[in-house]
Design goal:
single chain, 268 residues, Jelly Rolls, 6-stranded antiparallel β-sheet, 3-stranded antiparallel β-sheet, 6 helices, disordered N terminus
Length: 268
């Protein structure tokens, strides 16, 4: 049997051409084909006849060129901040595809319901282009580093306290998916990169969590950060390159249990 023929059509549609001697198939929404999760599609080719199927595959354009050209800042620790990493033309579509999260906490992206554009973003965050760009900027080898991606949609009064991330996380990547608001103008909920562990006002850089801004920094024992109290909707994607598969699985297991408990209490 000859192999399927793949062509990319317009508007994110992947056309799969099957040879005449291919067996009949039917598929339903959510099935995978050639590594792509279809929103909805169906296929049936009668014996002896060729067939094709169009699959809706969403792709997203991120500003990798801006990331690569951004110099690494060293104060108070090595980092890059890239405004509009998610371009405005893409951001609105992503925001429309995010789930409503009315409770604090980090949710594994496979534990929440995402629209197609938000899914495309999460897949891009774990992709090789971003990994390669970060390796080049910071002189790291992340080729064997497992990834962990979580989504936050709500910040509570216990969030933002000064901390360093766990050293199980080799690199932290934060992507902010919020529109401009008065709260950010008042510096509430804006992440601060701190010179030490004791004073939230002793910051070198402040990052408003808006407009698809990307923040990347390798973790260490002095990568202190935090933000002024903010209670309300505040979407962020956190990608971590982990030290080991065991650490990644352990962290994701903890987040999944937390997400499950939150769904139970919300339903109650």
């Amino acid at each position: 049997m000859s192999s399927p023929r793949l062509t990319v059509g317009s508007k994110g549609r992947l056309v799969v051409g099957l040879p005449a001697n291919a067996p009949s198939h039917t598929r339903s929404a959510g099935d995978d084909i050639f590594g792509c999760r279809a929103k909805s599609w169906g296929l049936r080719n009668p014996p002896g006849e060729a067939a094709s199927v169009a699959i809706e595959v969403w792709m997203i354009e991120l500003d990798y060129a801006k990331l690569i050209s951004t110099p690494v800042a060293t104060e108070p620790f090595a980092h890059v901040v890239v405004p509009d990493f998610v371009p405005p033309s893409e951001l609105e579509a992503v925001l429309a595809d995010l789930p409503s999260l009315g409770k604090r906490g980090s949710f594994p992206v496979d534990a929440v319901r995402l629209g197609p554009r938000a899914k495309a973003l999460m897949q891009a965050m774990e992709g090789t282009r971003l990994r390669t760009a970060i390796e080049g900027l910071f002189g790291l080898d992340l080729s064997d580093a497992p990834t962990m991606v979580t989504l936050r949609g709500w910040t509570g009064d216990r969030d933002g306290r000064i901390h360093c991330d766990s050293l199980a996380k080799r690199v932290t990547v934060l992507l902010y998916l919020n529109r401009q608001s008065n709260a950010w103008a008042r510096q509430e909920g804006c992440l601060r990169l701190l010179r030490g562990p004791n004073d939230l006002e002793d910051f070198a850089v402040e990052v408003p969590p808006v407009n698809g801004t990307l923040l990347v920094f390798p973790n260490g024992p002095t990568t202190w950060h935090g933000h002024r109290q903010f209670v309300g909707q505040r979407y962020s994607v956190q990608l971590n390159y982990m030290a080991s598969d065991d650490k990644a699985r352990s962290e994701l297991r903890r987040h999944r249990i937390s997400a499950f408990v939150k769904r139970l209490t919300q339903a109650a």
